[in-house]
Amino acid sequence: MNALICRHDGARILHSRPGEHSARVSADAPIKLYWSATGAIVAAKDQPIAGADGWITLDPYTADVPAAVATRFKYVGNGGAFSVRTADAPRLKKLLTRQVVLAQENAARATQNASTAQLAGALDELYAPAASTAPLGASVAHGRTTFRLWAPTALAVSLYAYPGATAPAKLALPNGLFYDPNAQGGGHSAGDLMWLGDVIKASLAGSIRGYSLTTSWDAQLPLEQISFEGQPAGDVTNPSEVVNYVENHDNLTIFDNNAYKLPTATSREDRARVQMLGAAINAFSQGVAYFHAGVDTLRSKSLDSNSDDSGDWFNRLDWRYAGDNFGVGLPPAASNQSNWPLQQPLLANEAIKPTAVEIAWARTWVVEIDRTAQAYTHDQRLVGGPVWLPPTSARLPQLLG
After folding, report:
1. CATH number of the domain that 342 lies in?
2. Are 288 and 218 part of one and the same domain?
Protein backbone atom coordinates (compact mmCIF):
# COMPACT_ATOMS: atom_id res chain seq x y z
CA MET A 1 0.00 0.00 0.00
CA ASN A 2 1.50 3.31 -1.05
CA ALA A 3 0.14 6.37 0.72
CA LEU A 4 0.00 10.10 0.35
CA ILE A 5 -1.41 12.70 2.72
CA CYS A 6 -3.01 15.84 1.32
CA ARG A 7 -5.59 18.43 2.37
CA HIS A 8 -9.20 19.13 1.45
CA ASP A 9 -11.46 21.81 2.96
CA GLY A 10 -9.58 21.90 6.25
CA ALA A 11 -9.49 18.13 6.70
CA ARG A 12 -6.63 15.89 5.63
CA ILE A 13 -7.30 12.99 3.31
CA LEU A 14 -5.15 9.94 2.87
CA HIS A 15 -5.27 8.35 -0.57
CA SER A 16 -3.96 4.81 -0.90
CA ARG A 17 -2.92 2.92 -4.01
CA PRO A 18 -2.96 -0.87 -4.29
CA GLY A 19 0.59 -2.19 -4.36
CA GLU A 20 2.37 -5.48 -4.07
CA HIS A 21 0.15 -6.65 -1.20
CA SER A 22 -3.07 -4.96 -2.32
CA ALA A 23 -5.15 -8.07 -1.66
CA ARG A 24 -4.90 -7.34 2.05
CA VAL A 25 -5.99 -3.67 1.71
CA SER A 26 -9.66 -2.94 2.33
CA ALA A 27 -10.93 0.44 1.20
CA ASP A 28 -13.86 0.36 3.62
CA ALA A 29 -11.94 -0.57 6.78
CA PRO A 30 -10.19 2.05 8.95
CA ILE A 31 -6.46 2.63 8.90
CA LYS A 32 -4.33 3.70 11.84
CA LEU A 33 -1.59 6.27 11.53
CA TYR A 34 1.11 5.36 14.05
CA TRP A 35 3.92 7.73 15.00
CA SER A 36 7.22 7.62 16.90
CA ALA A 37 9.42 10.53 17.95
CA THR A 38 12.47 8.24 17.98
CA GLY A 39 11.85 6.25 14.79
CA ALA A 40 11.33 3.04 16.76
CA ILE A 41 8.26 1.63 14.98
CA VAL A 42 8.47 -2.00 13.88
CA ALA A 43 5.70 -3.49 11.72
CA ALA A 44 5.51 -7.24 11.16
CA LYS A 45 2.83 -9.28 9.41
CA ASP A 46 0.28 -10.77 11.86
CA GLN A 47 1.94 -8.97 14.81
CA PRO A 48 0.87 -5.80 16.68
CA ILE A 49 2.71 -2.59 15.82
CA ALA A 50 5.65 -2.16 18.22
CA GLY A 51 7.65 0.91 19.23
CA ALA A 52 4.98 3.53 18.48
CA ASP A 53 4.26 6.50 20.75
CA GLY A 54 0.59 6.48 19.72
CA TRP A 55 -1.85 6.47 16.82
CA ILE A 56 -4.86 8.15 15.31
CA THR A 57 -7.58 6.44 13.32
CA LEU A 58 -8.30 7.34 9.69
CA ASP A 59 -11.83 6.65 8.49
CA PRO A 60 -12.91 5.62 4.97
CA TYR A 61 -13.67 8.71 2.89
CA THR A 62 -16.60 8.14 0.55
CA ALA A 63 -16.84 11.50 -1.25
CA ASP A 64 -15.01 12.20 -4.50
CA VAL A 65 -11.41 13.32 -4.15
CA PRO A 66 -11.41 17.03 -5.18
CA ALA A 67 -10.28 17.64 -8.75
CA ALA A 68 -7.43 19.92 -7.68
CA VAL A 69 -6.07 17.27 -5.31
CA ALA A 70 -6.50 14.49 -7.87
CA THR A 71 -4.60 16.55 -10.47
CA ARG A 72 -1.79 17.50 -8.13
CA PHE A 73 -1.23 13.88 -7.07
CA LYS A 74 -2.31 12.13 -10.25
CA TYR A 75 0.56 9.64 -9.99
CA VAL A 76 -1.08 8.03 -6.94
CA GLY A 77 -3.70 6.31 -9.09
CA ASN A 78 -6.95 4.67 -7.98
CA GLY A 79 -7.53 3.33 -4.49
CA GLY A 80 -9.23 3.91 -1.17
CA ALA A 81 -9.40 7.36 0.43
CA PHE A 82 -9.28 7.98 4.18
CA SER A 83 -9.89 11.07 6.27
CA VAL A 84 -8.52 12.31 9.57
CA ARG A 85 -11.15 12.79 12.23
CA THR A 86 -11.95 16.40 13.07
CA ALA A 87 -10.73 16.06 16.65
CA ASP A 88 -7.35 14.74 15.44
CA ALA A 89 -6.73 17.27 12.66
CA PRO A 90 -4.96 19.85 14.91
CA ARG A 91 -2.46 17.17 15.98
CA LEU A 92 -1.47 16.15 12.47
CA LYS A 93 1.03 18.96 11.93
CA LYS A 94 3.14 17.81 14.87
CA LEU A 95 2.72 14.11 14.05
CA LEU A 96 4.17 14.60 10.58
CA THR A 97 7.47 15.66 12.14
CA ARG A 98 7.77 12.13 13.55
CA GLN A 99 8.29 8.71 11.99
CA VAL A 100 4.91 7.81 10.50
CA VAL A 101 3.63 4.34 9.62
CA LEU A 102 0.17 3.55 8.25
CA ALA A 103 -1.27 0.19 9.25
CA GLN A 104 -4.41 -1.79 8.53
CA GLU A 105 -5.15 -4.36 11.24
CA ASN A 106 -7.56 -7.20 11.86
CA ALA A 107 -9.90 -7.46 14.86
CA ALA A 108 -7.05 -8.79 17.02
CA ARG A 109 -4.93 -5.72 16.18
CA ALA A 110 -2.53 -7.87 14.17
CA THR A 111 -0.96 -5.99 11.28
CA GLN A 112 -2.23 -7.06 7.87
CA ASN A 113 -0.59 -4.31 5.82
CA ALA A 114 1.67 -1.38 6.62
CA SER A 115 3.54 1.36 4.83
CA THR A 116 5.44 4.53 5.43
CA ALA A 117 3.81 7.62 3.93
CA GLN A 118 4.84 9.90 1.09
CA LEU A 119 4.72 13.14 3.06
CA ALA A 120 6.10 15.65 0.59
CA GLY A 121 2.70 17.12 -0.32
CA ALA A 122 1.62 17.50 3.30
CA LEU A 123 4.94 18.98 4.40
CA ASP A 124 4.85 21.50 1.55
CA GLU A 125 1.38 22.62 2.53
CA LEU A 126 2.04 22.74 6.26
CA TYR A 127 5.51 24.27 6.34
CA ALA A 128 6.46 25.81 2.98
CA PRO A 129 5.18 29.32 3.92
CA ALA A 130 7.72 29.39 6.75
CA ALA A 131 10.55 29.03 4.24
CA SER A 132 9.89 32.52 2.86
CA THR A 133 9.85 34.34 6.19
CA ALA A 134 13.59 35.06 6.24
CA PRO A 135 16.72 34.34 4.18
CA LEU A 136 17.90 30.77 4.55
CA GLY A 137 21.51 29.67 4.86
CA ALA A 138 24.40 31.84 6.05
CA SER A 139 23.96 35.62 6.21
CA VAL A 140 26.85 37.96 7.00
CA ALA A 141 25.89 41.39 8.39
CA HIS A 142 26.87 43.79 11.16
CA GLY A 143 30.07 41.92 11.91
CA ARG A 144 28.49 38.54 12.54
CA THR A 145 27.30 35.47 10.65
CA THR A 146 23.77 34.16 11.10
CA PHE A 147 22.72 30.66 10.08
CA ARG A 148 19.07 29.94 9.35
CA LEU A 149 17.85 26.45 8.42
CA TRP A 150 14.39 25.28 7.34
CA ALA A 151 14.11 21.69 8.51
CA PRO A 152 10.58 21.03 9.81
CA THR A 153 11.16 17.33 10.50
CA ALA A 154 14.62 17.64 12.08
CA LEU A 155 14.92 16.52 15.70
CA ALA A 156 18.18 18.43 16.22
CA VAL A 157 20.50 20.73 14.27
CA SER A 158 24.26 21.04 14.82
CA LEU A 159 26.71 23.63 13.49
CA TYR A 160 30.39 22.77 13.21
CA ALA A 161 32.92 25.61 12.98
CA TYR A 162 36.59 24.97 12.19
CA PRO A 163 38.81 27.79 13.50
CA GLY A 164 42.08 28.96 11.99
CA ALA A 165 43.57 29.23 8.52
CA THR A 166 44.92 25.68 8.61
CA ALA A 167 41.50 24.12 9.28
CA PRO A 168 41.02 23.07 5.62
CA ALA A 169 44.09 20.83 5.99
CA LYS A 170 42.24 18.58 8.47
CA LEU A 171 42.73 15.03 7.19
CA ALA A 172 40.28 12.21 6.59
CA LEU A 173 40.70 8.56 5.62
CA PRO A 174 40.90 8.93 1.79
CA ASN A 175 43.47 11.73 1.84
CA GLY A 176 46.19 10.53 4.17
CA LEU A 177 45.24 10.58 7.83
CA PHE A 178 48.06 8.77 9.69
CA TYR A 179 49.44 6.92 6.64
CA ASP A 180 50.44 10.00 4.56
CA PRO A 181 49.92 13.14 6.68
CA ASN A 182 50.45 16.69 5.49
CA ALA A 183 52.44 19.29 7.43
CA GLN A 184 49.37 20.54 9.34
CA GLY A 185 47.55 17.23 9.74
CA GLY A 186 50.00 14.98 11.56
CA GLY A 187 49.82 13.57 15.07
CA HIS A 188 47.18 10.93 14.38
CA SER A 189 47.39 7.27 15.31
CA ALA A 190 46.48 4.05 13.54
CA GLY A 191 43.51 3.90 15.88
CA ASP A 192 42.26 7.23 14.50
CA LEU A 193 42.49 5.81 10.99
CA MET A 194 40.64 2.63 11.97
CA TRP A 195 37.93 4.71 13.66
CA LEU A 196 37.29 6.61 10.43
CA GLY A 197 37.10 3.22 8.73
CA ASP A 198 34.25 2.37 11.11
CA VAL A 199 32.47 5.58 10.13
CA ILE A 200 32.77 4.72 6.44
CA LYS A 201 31.43 1.22 7.12
CA ALA A 202 28.43 2.87 8.78
CA SER A 203 27.83 4.85 5.57
CA LEU A 204 28.20 1.74 3.43
CA ALA A 205 25.54 0.11 5.61
CA GLY A 206 23.10 2.94 4.93
CA SER A 207 23.39 4.60 8.38
CA ILE A 208 20.75 2.15 9.64
CA ARG A 209 20.43 2.74 13.36
CA GLY A 210 19.89 -0.93 14.20
CA TYR A 211 22.65 -2.28 11.95
CA SER A 212 25.18 -4.19 14.09
CA LEU A 213 28.79 -3.28 13.28
CA THR A 214 31.93 -5.04 14.45
CA THR A 215 34.06 -2.02 15.36
CA SER A 216 37.81 -1.58 15.06
CA TRP A 217 38.06 -2.35 18.80
CA ASP A 218 36.11 -5.62 18.30
CA ALA A 219 32.87 -4.48 19.91
CA GLN A 220 29.55 -5.46 18.36
CA LEU A 221 27.40 -2.30 18.44
CA PRO A 222 24.31 -0.99 16.62
CA LEU A 223 25.14 2.16 14.67
CA GLU A 224 22.82 4.25 16.85
CA GLN A 225 25.19 3.59 19.76
CA ILE A 226 28.30 4.74 17.88
CA SER A 227 28.87 8.49 18.18
CA PHE A 228 30.58 10.47 15.40
CA GLU A 229 31.20 14.17 16.13
CA GLY A 230 28.38 14.17 18.65
CA GLN A 231 25.85 12.46 16.38
CA PRO A 232 24.92 8.77 16.08
CA ALA A 233 26.62 7.01 13.16
CA GLY A 234 23.22 5.46 12.39
CA ASP A 235 20.07 7.54 12.69
CA VAL A 236 17.62 6.20 10.09
CA THR A 237 15.49 3.11 9.62
CA ASN A 238 15.62 3.07 5.82
CA PRO A 239 18.59 3.84 3.51
CA SER A 240 16.31 5.96 1.31
CA GLU A 241 16.29 8.54 4.12
CA VAL A 242 20.02 9.19 3.59
CA VAL A 243 21.64 11.37 0.91
CA ASN A 244 25.37 10.61 0.60
CA TYR A 245 27.87 13.01 -0.93
CA VAL A 246 31.55 13.95 -0.77
CA GLU A 247 31.20 17.46 -2.24
CA ASN A 248 28.24 19.78 -2.40
CA HIS A 249 26.94 22.88 -4.21
CA ASP A 250 28.94 26.03 -3.48
CA ASN A 251 31.45 24.46 -1.09
CA LEU A 252 34.93 23.15 -1.85
CA THR A 253 35.07 20.53 -4.57
CA ILE A 254 36.62 17.21 -3.60
CA PHE A 255 39.66 18.07 -5.75
CA ASP A 256 40.15 21.34 -3.86
CA ASN A 257 39.60 19.60 -0.55
CA ASN A 258 42.35 17.17 -1.45
CA ALA A 259 44.59 20.01 -2.65
CA TYR A 260 44.54 21.27 0.93
CA LYS A 261 44.92 17.88 2.59
CA LEU A 262 47.22 15.75 0.44
CA PRO A 263 50.98 16.25 0.84
CA THR A 264 52.12 18.74 -1.79
CA ALA A 265 54.42 16.13 -3.35
CA THR A 266 51.44 13.89 -4.20
CA SER A 267 51.47 13.08 -7.92
CA ARG A 268 48.70 14.08 -10.30
CA GLU A 269 47.89 10.41 -10.80
CA ASP A 270 47.53 9.76 -7.08
CA ARG A 271 45.34 12.85 -6.66
CA ALA A 272 42.98 11.41 -9.28
CA ARG A 273 43.04 8.02 -7.52
CA VAL A 274 42.16 9.61 -4.16
CA GLN A 275 39.23 11.42 -5.78
CA MET A 276 37.95 8.19 -7.28
CA LEU A 277 38.20 6.52 -3.86
CA GLY A 278 35.88 9.20 -2.48
CA ALA A 279 33.50 8.81 -5.40
CA ALA A 280 33.46 5.02 -4.94
CA ILE A 281 32.65 5.25 -1.22
CA ASN A 282 29.77 7.56 -2.14
CA ALA A 283 28.49 5.27 -4.89
CA PHE A 284 28.68 2.07 -2.84
CA SER A 285 27.07 3.50 0.33
CA GLN A 286 23.45 2.42 0.72
CA GLY A 287 21.11 5.37 0.28
CA VAL A 288 20.80 8.13 -2.31
CA ALA A 289 24.15 8.83 -3.98
CA TYR A 290 24.46 12.52 -4.82
CA PHE A 291 27.32 13.58 -7.11
CA HIS A 292 28.40 17.17 -7.61
CA ALA A 293 28.89 18.33 -11.19
CA GLY A 294 32.50 17.79 -12.23
CA VAL A 295 33.42 14.94 -9.90
CA ASP A 296 34.35 13.00 -13.06
CA THR A 297 36.55 15.82 -14.43
CA LEU A 298 38.53 16.60 -11.24
CA ARG A 299 36.73 19.94 -11.15
CA SER A 300 38.31 22.76 -9.16
CA LYS A 301 37.03 26.17 -8.10
CA SER A 302 40.55 27.30 -7.20
CA LEU A 303 39.94 26.58 -3.50
CA ASP A 304 36.82 28.81 -3.32
CA SER A 305 34.94 27.63 -0.23
CA ASN A 306 31.72 29.47 -1.12
CA SER A 307 31.28 30.05 -4.84
CA ASP A 308 27.61 31.10 -4.73
CA ASP A 309 28.49 34.65 -5.80
CA SER A 310 31.79 33.96 -7.57
CA GLY A 311 30.52 33.90 -11.15
CA ASP A 312 31.71 31.75 -14.04
CA TRP A 313 35.40 32.47 -13.45
CA PHE A 314 35.55 30.18 -10.44
CA ASN A 315 32.51 27.99 -11.19
CA ARG A 316 33.53 27.09 -14.73
CA LEU A 317 33.28 23.53 -16.06
CA ASP A 318 35.56 22.69 -18.99
CA TRP A 319 33.47 20.48 -21.28
CA ARG A 320 36.50 20.00 -23.53
CA TYR A 321 38.08 18.08 -20.62
CA ALA A 322 41.37 19.90 -21.14
CA GLY A 323 41.66 21.39 -17.64
CA ASP A 324 39.92 21.54 -14.27
CA ASN A 325 40.04 25.32 -13.45
CA PHE A 326 42.64 24.99 -10.69
CA GLY A 327 45.00 27.95 -10.24
CA VAL A 328 42.96 30.67 -11.98
CA GLY A 329 43.56 33.12 -9.12
CA LEU A 330 42.89 33.60 -5.44
CA PRO A 331 39.17 33.12 -4.71
CA PRO A 332 37.04 36.10 -3.60
CA ALA A 333 37.88 37.63 -0.24
CA ALA A 334 34.38 37.43 1.26
CA SER A 335 34.64 33.75 2.18
CA ASN A 336 38.32 33.03 1.62
CA GLN A 337 40.59 35.85 2.72
CA SER A 338 41.56 34.20 5.99
CA ASN A 339 42.87 31.24 4.00
CA TRP A 340 44.75 33.22 1.33
CA PRO A 341 48.18 32.59 2.96
CA LEU A 342 47.50 28.83 2.73
CA GLN A 343 45.92 29.01 -0.72
CA GLN A 344 48.48 31.12 -2.57
CA PRO A 345 51.36 28.60 -2.68
CA LEU A 346 48.99 25.76 -3.52
CA LEU A 347 47.38 27.61 -6.44
CA ALA A 348 50.82 28.56 -7.78
CA ASN A 349 51.97 24.92 -7.74
CA GLU A 350 51.64 23.66 -11.32
CA ALA A 351 52.30 20.08 -10.20
CA ILE A 352 48.90 19.98 -8.48
CA LYS A 353 46.89 20.92 -11.57
CA PRO A 354 45.78 17.84 -13.55
CA THR A 355 46.30 17.45 -17.27
CA ALA A 356 43.85 16.11 -19.83
CA VAL A 357 45.38 12.64 -19.24
CA GLU A 358 44.31 12.46 -15.56
CA ILE A 359 40.92 13.97 -16.37
CA ALA A 360 40.25 11.35 -19.06
CA TRP A 361 41.30 8.60 -16.64
CA ALA A 362 38.95 9.94 -13.96
CA ARG A 363 36.03 10.12 -16.39
CA THR A 364 36.57 6.48 -17.34
CA TRP A 365 36.66 5.40 -13.70
CA VAL A 366 33.49 7.24 -12.73
CA VAL A 367 31.71 5.22 -15.44
CA GLU A 368 33.23 2.00 -14.06
CA ILE A 369 32.25 2.93 -10.49
CA ASP A 370 28.68 3.54 -11.63
CA ARG A 371 28.55 0.19 -13.43
CA THR A 372 29.88 -1.60 -10.38
CA ALA A 373 27.42 0.13 -8.06
CA GLN A 374 24.56 -0.95 -10.30
CA ALA A 375 25.73 -4.55 -9.92
CA TYR A 376 24.52 -4.37 -6.33
CA THR A 377 20.85 -4.32 -5.47
CA HIS A 378 18.99 -4.65 -2.23
CA ASP A 379 15.49 -5.74 -1.34
CA GLN A 380 13.74 -3.13 0.80
CA ARG A 381 11.66 -5.18 3.23
CA LEU A 382 8.92 -4.04 5.57
CA VAL A 383 10.83 -5.36 8.57
CA GLY A 384 14.59 -5.12 9.01
CA GLY A 385 17.25 -3.41 6.95
CA PRO A 386 18.47 -3.82 3.40
CA VAL A 387 19.02 -7.37 2.16
CA TRP A 388 22.13 -7.58 0.00
CA LEU A 389 21.95 -9.66 -3.16
CA PRO A 390 25.00 -11.02 -4.99
CA PRO A 391 26.61 -8.78 -7.64
CA THR A 392 25.64 -9.70 -11.16
CA SER A 393 28.54 -8.05 -12.96
CA ALA A 394 31.32 -10.34 -14.12
CA ARG A 395 33.62 -7.32 -13.95
CA LEU A 396 33.24 -6.94 -10.20
CA PRO A 397 36.14 -9.18 -9.10
CA GLN A 398 38.45 -7.29 -11.48
CA LEU A 399 37.30 -3.89 -10.27
CA LEU A 400 37.55 -4.71 -6.57
CA GLY A 401 40.53 -7.04 -6.72
Report:
1. 3.20.20.80
2. yes
Q: At what angle do helices 254-261 and 340-347 cross, to 10 degrees?
A: 100
| Residue 65 CB contacts under 8 Å (≥ 6 apart), including other chains | 8, 13, 15, 81
User: What does each C-alpha distance from 94 to 39, 58, 69, 98, 323 come to in angstroms?
Assistant: 14, 16, 22, 7, 51
Burial of 400 (0-12, 13-18, 19+ CB in 10 A): exposed
Each residue's pLDDT tens digit, 87-138: 998 888 888 888 899 999 988 999 988 888 767 677 777 776 766 666 777 7
Task: Please state whether 384 falls in left (phi above 0), alpha (psi between -120 and 50) or beta.
Answer: left
Write the Ramachandran bin of 266: left for phi over 0, alpha for psi from -120 to 50, otherwise beta.
Answer: beta
The alpha helices in 128-209, defined as continuous H runs, are: 190-204
pLDDT in tens, 236-246: 998 888 899 99
**CA–CA dist 301, 248 (Å, integer):** 12
**pLDDT digit string, tens, across residues 319-335:** 999 999 999 999 999 88
HSE, CB side, 13 Å, CA atoms: give it for residue 382: 20
- How far apart, in whole angstroms, are the C-alpha atoms of residue 92 and residue 80? 20
Provide the domain limits for residue 89.
Answer: 2-127
Q: Which amino acid is at 171?
A: L
Domain membership flag for residue 136 = no
Residue 84's H or E segment, with its range, is strand 81-84
Can you give the CATH number for the domain in which 122 is found?
2.60.40.1130
Distance, CA of 14 to CA of 294 (rounded, Å): 41
